[in-house]
């Protein structure tokens, strides 16, 4: 089913969201107050309109009320981001995703009705930091302030060992939820499964427990 999206603010983040959604064949209404931005996106988005998103009447006229999911990419102008989000929430939009500039901005956005708050620079910074710590850490997904999921490649310390021998849950308190072996994904790995080079473990746990796991088993000395 084709869903309708609107992207407000076509900076680096909003512009990239708009481009990808359009490439995936979604219907996208692109809004920015900057004419040059709208010219850049007029052949990419379904509709591209120059408008100030903090103007309630304009948003109504654009039919934003009928859109399933609105993404607000207004970055630096925090006041405009907050005003726009409040209006979208009052309109009863089903899904509102907003880019936050910092933690305080993020907290306010949640309080005023954003369903999803994203911190692209902060999250990418964390991802990069983890991949720098070890080449074996392939990806990183934050579930909450305290929990995350990581994807790690079999380290030298794990190679040839079974999950039972590694005792990841007993020793570090984290759970191996799946193991990727080439194209195959094993979602309920047995304790006797022996880890091979280039296998990828998907591990869930608290930040503290995963840090211990990374330090002792993932990072090769
Ligand atoms: P990024 O950091 O993702 O590049 P920016 O803050 O640089 O984000 O860009 C935000 C975009 O939002 C700009 O293109 C700007 O013209 C647009 N914008 C800012 N305020 C408004 C507003 N009130 N209405 C519509 N677009 C806006």
Please compute the radius of gyration using only Cα atoms. 22 Å
Low-confidence stretches: none
Class based on secondary structure composition and strand pairing:
alpha/beta
Distance between the termini: 50 Å
Average pLDDT for all residues: 93
Task: Give the strand line-up of the largest sheet.
Answer: 3-2-1-4-5-6
Largest sheet: 6 strands, parallel
Rough outline: elongated
Hey, roughly how much beta strand do the residues contain? 25-35%
Give the helices and strands as they follow along the chain.
EHEHEHEHEHEHEEHHEEEH
Q: How many DSSP helices?
A: 9
Strand count: 11
> Helical amount among residues, as a percent range?
25-40%
In this entry the ligands are: adenosine-5'-diphosphate
Properties at a glance:
221 residues, alpha/beta, 11 strands, 38% helix, elongated, binds adenosine-5'-diphosphate
Characterize the structure shown.
By secondary structure, this protein is of the alpha/beta class. It is built from 9 helices and 11 strands. The strands form 2 sheets. A 6-stranded parallel β-sheet has the order 3-2-1-4-5-6, sandwiched between helices. β1, α1 and β2 form a beta-alpha-beta unit. The protein binds adenosine-5'-diphosphate. The site of adenosine-5'-diphosphate has 21 residues, from α1 and β2.
């Amino acid at each position: 089913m084709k869903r309708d999206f609107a992207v407000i603010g076509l900076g680096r983040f909003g512009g990239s969201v708009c481009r990808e959604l359009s490439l995936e064949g979604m219907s996208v209404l692109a809004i920015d107050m900057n004419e040059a931005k709208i010219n850049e996106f007029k052949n990419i988005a379904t509709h591209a309109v120059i408008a100030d998103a903090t103007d309630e009447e304009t948003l109504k006229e654009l039919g934003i009320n009928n859109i399933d999911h609105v993404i607000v990419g207004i970055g630096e102008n925090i006041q405009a981001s907050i005003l726009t989000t409040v209006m979208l929430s009052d309109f009863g939009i089903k899904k509102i995703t907003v880019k936050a500039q910092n933690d305080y901005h993020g907290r306010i956005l949640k309080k005023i009705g954003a369903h999803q708050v994203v911190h692209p620079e902060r999250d990418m910074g964390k991802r990069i930091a983890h991949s720098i710590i070890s080449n074996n850490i392939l990806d990183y997904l934050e579930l909450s302030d305290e929990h995350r999921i990581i994807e790690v490649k079999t380290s030298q310390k794990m190679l040839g060992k079974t999950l039972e021998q590694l005792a990841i849950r007993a020793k570090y308190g984290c759970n191996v939820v799946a193991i990727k072996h080439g194209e195959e994904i094993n979602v309920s790995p047995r304790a006797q499964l022996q880890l091979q080079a280039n296998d990828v473990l998907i591990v869930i746990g608290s930040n503290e427990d995963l840090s211990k796991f990374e330090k002792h088993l993932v990072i090769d000395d």
